[in-house]
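Researcher: Predict the fold of Ig-like domain-containing protein.
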Amino acid sequence: MGRLPGSWDPPAWSGPWKGLLLAASVLSSCLQPVPAQTPTPTPVTITPASPALGGNVSLAPQNVAQNFTSCNWHRSTTNDETSRILTYFPPPNPVQHNGPAHTGRETAGPGCALHIAGLTLSDTGNYTTLAPIPHGGAGTRSNALSVPCTEMLPRPTVTPNQTLVLENGTFTLRCNSSPSADTVLWLRDGASLTPSERLVLSPDNRTLTVLGVTRSDGGTYQCEVGNPVSTNRSEPSTVTVAYGPASVRIDPPGPITLTLGSPLTLTCVADSVPVPSYCWGLNGTDTNQTGSSLTFNPMTLDHQGTYECWAHNPITNRTVLVSVTARTRCGAAPVPPTPSPPCRLTTRGHNECDSLPG
Ligand SMILES: *[C@@H]1O[C@H](CO)[C@@H](O)[C@H](O)[C@H]1NC(C)=O
Ligand SMILES: *[C@@H]1O[C@H](CO)[C@@H](O)[C@H](O)[C@H]1NC(C)=O
Ligand SMILES: *[C@@H]1O[C@H](CO)[C@@H](O)[C@H](O)[C@H]1NC(C)=O
Ligand SMILES: *[C@@H]1O[C@H](CO)[C@@H](O)[C@H](O)[C@H]1NC(C)=O
Ligand SMILES: *[C@@H]1O[C@H](CO)[C@@H](O)[C@H](O)[C@H]1NC(C)=O
Ligand SMILES: *[C@@H]1O[C@H](CO)[C@@H](O)[C@H](O)[C@H]1NC(C)=O
Ligand SMILES: *[C@@H]1O[C@H](CO)[C@@H](O)[C@H](O)[C@H]1NC(C)=O
Ligand SMILES: *[C@@H]1O[C@H](CO)[C@@H](O)[C@H](O)[C@H]1NC(C)=O
Ligand SMILES: *[C@@H]1O[C@H](CO)[C@@H](O)[C@H](O)[C@H]1NC(C)=O
Ligand SMILES: *[C@@H]1O[C@H](CO)[C@@H](O)[C@H](O)[C@H]1NC(C)=O
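Model: Structure tokens for Ig-like domain-containing protein follow.
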């Protein structure tokens, strides 16, 4: 029985056994995705339109007779028995008879749709179906399909996954990803980054360089890779911007006048990343105190004097001195001594305080 002419008969059905092409180009290499071909009127609906390696695809022929009793799928441009994947008998008693070309991953369903699971490169080829068409007879369904060489993208990684950078410095992050990723985007704290004079992307977007680092450049960075079938995002990479100490002060500010016997707590406050180390001096002599606070309870005459807080950032290697004078109501106002470092500050964020000659 021949096909009936009719408006439903797409021009693509030029030959009786025109095949369905699943991009031959993917056979060679995954490195160069093939641009999808211009869509043409298709008598087979392919879902998804861009099948992915490892994914599934459904090939659903259009215009299959409602009352069809069986249909065939072949992996070739012909209907020879050696290329037969399966013969399908629809409900109410659906039966699938597998043919020589069945790989164990093909199933047929309503409307003679062919479902292929776990797509591999060897699924590349021409597929042909022979199914009854409305108004009687049998027809072939054919199409030209390009499968871009796409895979479900694995999670990319960002290296280094942790960075400590000086304010005004430079850092570089790299997005390590499958070569089949078509797009690479960067995010900071979940928001996408726009390149600028200071935020420089390599031509393939895989390398992000930040120049003249500011404090607001700190945060968690991620890269997001994409291709037509998937997107995936890296774990966060933490960038810490070291700066300071800045705005160092002692709380309460001086001069402090206290009643003899009342308690006194001095706290050194600094804007600094990382947290600075502290040394306290009194009248130019090390107190051997290294916390951010100093407490006297009660305050005695011995505690009068000029207190110096040395705040040291071991990464920026900066030390800032601030001081206050404290005296009791009955004591004489102290004369501030010439400040000199009473503390041997280390770059390991740990103080070794030495007393200086008084
Ligand atoms: C792919 O097909 C298999 C078998 O039919 C099924 O188990 C799986 O859920 C499908 N996967 C997707 C992503 O649809
Ligand atoms: C599919 O068929 C076309 C036309 O017959 C042929 O040129 C092409 O090589 C075939 N593709 C594959 C992967 O066999
Ligand atoms: C299916 O129905 C059409 C009419 O719609 C009829 O011509 C054809 O013979 C039927 N085929 C079968 C297998 O029942
Ligand atoms: C990202 O890739 C990982 C494996 O590397 C996978 O488990 C995960 O499902 C992927 N996420 C998405 C959204 O595809
Ligand atoms: C960074 O990567 C190393 C191994 O490469 C891992 O041991 C470490 O936990 C990671 N750190 C973070 C913050 O993810
Ligand atoms: C960075 O430069 C600014 C302006 O020149 C300066 O105030 C700041 O202290 C510098 N930061 C560091 C860590 O050197
Ligand atoms: C590179 O990044 C820019 C800015 O985020 C984006 O507009 C562009 O599409 C990206 N290009 C690629 C190939 O990922
Ligand atoms: C600080 O410690 C040194 C020894 O490490 C000691 O000689 C000095 O007297 C101490 N100074 C004070 C104020 O306690
Ligand atoms: C830190 O600064 C001091 C003096 O400012 C200098 O002698 C020392 O070499 C610096 N250390 C580092 C690690 O840069
Ligand atoms: C610090 O110096 C002042 C005078 O400038 C003095 O009154 C005070 O007793 C001194 N404190 C100590 C602990 O030496």
